[in-house]
Amino acid sequence: MNTQLRPVEKSSTSASIKHRDKISKRTEWLDDLLLGMVDETLKQVFREEGAEVIYDYLGNKCHLKRQDIAKNPEDFSAGLRGF
Fold this sequence. Notes:
Helix content is 84%, strand content 0%.
């Protein structure tokens, strides 16, 4: 009876890993999309140089790297208000 349960557990574990990978890829895609939209908007409003000044400020004063904006939207928002 235990031998019958093992394949089910493996299958369940494999499905769970595939599901987590799928969610992880989707989250990464959404993070990239959001970062691209933020970058494009900052450059449209403040031009290239202004966007770089803002990114520098966020990195130096708020310790928020550009690539972490999507994972920390509250910090990004607070940093913009502080700027």
